[in-house]
Amino acid sequence: MAKTAADFLLDVHTEPLPARFVAPALEQMKAGAVERLKGKLVHGEVSVCGTLRHLVVRIDGLQASSQDSRERFKGPKESVWRKPDGSFTPAAEGFARKYGIPASELKPVDGVLYAEVEKKGEPAVVVLQKLIPELLGALQFPKFMTWEESGFKFGRPIRALTALYGAEVVPVTLAGVTSGRLAYGHPTYAPKPVSLADPSGHAKALRAGSVLADPAERRAALLAELEAAGKSAGGSVDLDPELVDETVFMTETPAAVVERLKPEHMVLPAALLKMVMKKQLKFFPVLAQDGRLAPAFVGVRDGLHQGDDLVRVGYRRVLEARFNDAAFFFGRDCAVRLESRLPELERVTYQKALGSMAEKAGRVSALAAWIADSLMGSAPLDADIVAAASRLVYADLVTDVVKEFPELQGAMGGVYARRDGLGDAVAAAVEQFYFPVGAGTAVPATPEAAVVSLAGKLDGLAGCFAAGLIPTGSADPFALRRQALGVVRILIERNLPLNLNEAVEQAFRLQPVSAADADALNGQLMSFIWTRAESYFEDQGFKSDEIRSVRTGAFEDLCGTQRRLSAVHAVRSDPAFEPLAAAFKRASNISKQMRFELQGKLPDRNLLKEEAERTLHEKLLELDAASRARFSAGDYEGALKTLVPIKPHLDHFFDKVMVMVEDEALKKNRAALLKSLVNAFNRVADLSEIQSSAS
Amino acid sequence: MKPLSFQELILRLQGFWSERGCAIVQPYDLEKGAGTFNPATFFGALTSAPARYAYAEPCRRPADGRYGDNPNRLGKYYQFQVLLKPAPAGVTDLYQESLRAIGLDPKEHDLRWIEDDWESPTLGAAGVGWEVWLDGMEITQFTYFQQMGSMPLKPVSVEITYGLERIAMYLQDKDSVFDLDYGGGRSYGDLHRQQEREFSHFHFEDADVTMLARHFNEWEADGERLVAKRLPLAAYDSVVKVSHLFNVLEARGAISVTERARYIGRVRGLARKVMQLYIETMEPKAPAEAA
User: In DSSP terms, which residues pair with A287 in a beta bridge?
Assistant: First the structure.
């Protein structure tokens, strides 16, 4: 054999793929190639890279040919096809012939005959010839298209296939394209393809053709270009991560072009200017030293810095035209007070069963007032601000700017509320109504904004649950998971001791539809919210058993729940804690077993006969009183820690005292003693949920 | 070198595509919202027979009129439309060549292909493709038709739609469409500004809603009648007419949100019948569903 291994390269050269298609396709190509080679050919590293016009997979050191193997085919029982004299029946001869061997070579194993066939190893090129169409045919794109006679489906038309195994072309024909050794550069800057001797020259050929095929390299080049551009504009580029990602897959060689803006455009709200730049034109805003928007922007062109002056003028002209449109919409919006837009909301449908946006606004207002009222006294709150803001939260949906840029909902409402002279507090509550908009983004900054935002989310959740629009799998068109997480985050991060059980009941009461089984629905929504709370707590580093230990009563006050959780987490590091949890579990199991007999019964001192149970009782009374005092003062960790010294006494009790004795009175009394110990801990957490780290 | 006038731009594109085997057909003589409505494209894309057409087409978008006051917005403008069936390999490169033919060297510009799938609810048509951006400005809609009348198309056609005014503004370095040099010593404004004023007035303030709604019903009924007579080309005129009547009624604010969907459904319904009939008539191999 001439060689044992060689490198493989597949470059699918396409017409421009949408930026969002590329990275997922590359991941699938890598996984798909590995999967398809498994058990066939041994190989080294599998790597992928690509651009909007290239999907490239490279396999290092791919075995030249698959191993020879023996395949076995099962026949009938030996006793049926073989005569006593050892010769074979005609049926057996036929079976053997099918596999190209004489019957005498049939092999008996455990009384059954097998035909064993030698299977020659396949050369890598043959394996790859089958692999390529399968691999590409299996790629999933967000949207498929067809473009040529064979009807092959792909993200965008395939223009060329470069398929090389070592120096050899892997011959395939797919979607009307026949593979070859030509590598294609940027269609504008390198229209002539380059012939490759083998895979090693591919990256270099593309680079020479103004294509940086490796996304990591392209990202680094982009960031360097942006940094230099920002500096030359006297500030820094606003590196919106989504736009950076998109630009990496919208360009083959990123080249940043910076241009200044006329001051008259800078009077528009910053959120609107940024939106026009990023969403409409994929330009990067430039920020001044103080973080405010600078009168400049950066566009990233796909290619070389050739004719930048023309490009710069073109960029500015198109951006100015867009700013003029935005200014036109903004001017129209400013001519109308937010307040007077409310009747228009009657004509906007929220959801068929749940009525118009005007009806939703009414419910949100009512719920916000209810929440404000129930929080009154425990949080500094101005109910008038809540009332004024909650009426207006949806008014901006019918403004021209928000119709044009739905992402600016809330932000524009805040701008218009401020212009209408409604004051900063109301404007902030309108602006922050949709907060938090994503993971790691801020929750509403004021208690009033938090209350209004909570009301919006709880109404959304209760409404959709009541209307049967409960998310399943990945489908969540009303973003209910995000809203539930928002509720959790707002309550905890704004420290609002709201009873969520009651608030959810109230939200359900306000809905125009009700479920047949209201309690079941309520329970379903509460566990939906709890799932979000669990993942929120897990993100903060709490363990799942710790989270389970505070589940009971969790919604009465999520902030308290978080503090109880912190207490369990902190106490857990105490070396005495885990053995205590084990002993506690035993106590808890006994008291659970006898819960019907106990019914709130307290231990009777006169029935405590043994020294061990008297000591435990005395010690418990003492520690429990101290723990209770800590708990009332809000020191949950202290409350738990105070109870830890009960451990030796509990162990001693279990050593010396039998609980399950014949004497009913003694038995109940001992169980009641354990029950009061369990109760002392349960104020903070149910320690029986805590898993020993040893087990 | 003097930049191309508006009419030279059209002539160059006609020349370019003529040399590449396209029949240069003329605009269709009915009001319409897009070059796709020209029968060359509408019917050209439907059957299996090869087709190559190119033409300039006036398009009316009543709701986009701005009384001739907005330098970038028009209620009537021109598209240059190319239909290629089957889609030639490397058609995006062919398009780049056409830009060179009108004096735009892609090397000196930022040419981007931005995902933009096209859909015409009134024609039940959908395609996959891009907006082509030249230095950030959308100058072309580039589409691989995937279906029409909600039926998959085979072979697939490519439709290239150049936004002539935008390209001319770029070439001539003008900030207002009305300042464009049209050719023949005229500006675009000389020829179009008064039209913009009058038609904006007509579409937004003056159109007779009762009459237009009646005409919609009548042309729809006539389209159905002609379908029954198996005259797809004649019936198609009704599709174009009701589509435009709908656009005027909508610009006039005479159609509510709920009515809107119904109107669109009616246009699509008629369009679909015409398409099916055309395929039955022109493509004898296709299984005849009617009978």
Answer: A236, A293
